[in-house]
Automatic annotation (TrEMBL):
One of its GO terms (molecular function) is 6-phosphofructokinase activity. The gene is pfkB. GO terms for cellular component: cytosol. Keywords: ATP-binding, Kinase, Nucleotide-binding, Transferase. The keyword Nucleotide-binding applies. It comes from the Bacteria. This is Phosphofructokinase. Residues 22-300 form the Carbohydrate kinase PfkB domain. Belongs to the carbohydrate kinase PfkB family. It holds the Pfam family PfkB. It comes from Flavimaricola marinus.
Length: 315
């Protein structure tokens, strides 16, 4: 299997709990919190491990919260490459309302980065990457990091001979939708992010596939994936279009579904499976993730069972 390096520049200590009701202006008595190391790349590595694979986790960490995340990753048996940054790593909180089934997610900011921090982390990521391996850039950027950082890292990693998978949002994603000589292998986004980039609604699978194919043909990435929630995901290259529908499962929490998709897709790609198989395994892992509570990711037995329910078909 090919080497997999995940990169998390803006990690978080994820706390998840539930309360009988979530209402304003009152003290809410919550259940004991479940604590997990969080952030896009970390969750991708956790999902890969759950699915039977392995990866190396490059994580920018600071302060006592950062050390707590490092300890949790060590306890989980993940291969951590710890890059120390100034300040205190952020915390996130997800609280479920037992009465309505709704979930409320609060994302606290982390410390700001300065140009020296950006230069240091770029050097660290490039030193950790292996030519011929897969590099997953996933999650948000820290405060102060330039929006072009993800695109710059993707280009430099590609130039080193790595195949890059990017899953980000906001201005960083907009930067990546521009054609580049060293474009990433895979660019993934959800339905709302795709609409934001397109500048207009994408009301059907076909419209999402058209948008993804246009990005691939423009040179933004070799493969573009757009997730459409319960409709599953569409994948496009300049010459192919595929769709895998999400499995019909009970939804407990949507936290980590996208990261589980990326984990399942990346693990399948590292094993040399075809693009339709990679898409199916990604959607199956994402479907399995919504069945679990709080910040828990996909259960391997669910992900394996749901493969048969998420076949990829041509669009």
């Amino acid at each position: 299997m090919r080497d997999i390096l995940t990169v998390t520049l803006n990690p978080a200590l994820d706390l998840a709990s539930e309360a009988p009701r979530v209402i304003p202006n009152e003290k809410l008595r919550c259940d004991p919190a479940h604590t997990d190391p969080g952030g896009g790349g970390i969750n991708v590595s956790r999902a890969i491990q759950l699915l039977g694979g392995s990866s190396r986790c490059f994580v920018a960490l600071g302060g006592s919260t950062g050390q707590r995340i490092a300890d949790l990753l060590g306890e989980a048996g993940l291969d951590l490459i710890q890059h120390k940054v100034p300040g205190e790593t952020r915390t996130s909180l997800a609280v479920g309302d037992k009465t309505t089934g709704d979930q409320y997610r609060f994302m606290l900011p982390g410390p700001p980065w300065f140009p020296a921090d950006v230069a240091a982390v770029e050097a660290g990521v490039l030193a950790a990457a292996e030519p011929g391996g897969l590099a997953v850039l996933s999650g948000s950027l820290p405060l102060g990091a330039p929006p072009a950082l993800m695109a710059d890292l993707a280009a430099r990693l590609t130039g080193l001979g790595a195949e890059v998978i990017v899953d980000t949002s906001g201005p960083a994603l907009h930067q990546l939708t521009r054609a580049s000589e060293f474009a990433p292998k895979v660019l993934r986004m959800n339905h709302f992010e795709a609409q934001d980039c397109a500048g207009h609604p994408l009301n059907s699978l076909q419209e999402s596939a058209d948008f993804a194919a246009a990005l691939a043909k423009s040179g933004a990435a070799q493969i573009v994936i757009v997730a459409r929630g319960p409709e599953g995901s569409v994948l496009a290259t300049p010459t192919e279009r595929w769709h895998s529908r999400a499995a019909n499962v009970p939804v407990r929490s949507k936290v980590g579904a996208g990261d589980s998709f990326v984990g399942g897709f990346t693990y399948a790609l590292a094993q040399g499976l075809s693009l339709p198989e990679c898409l199916t395994r990604g959607v199956a892992a994402g479907s399995a993730a919504v069945m679990t509570e709080g910040t828990l990711l996909c259960r391997p037995e669910d992900a394996e069972r749901l493969i048969a329910h998420c076949p990829s078909t041509r669009l």
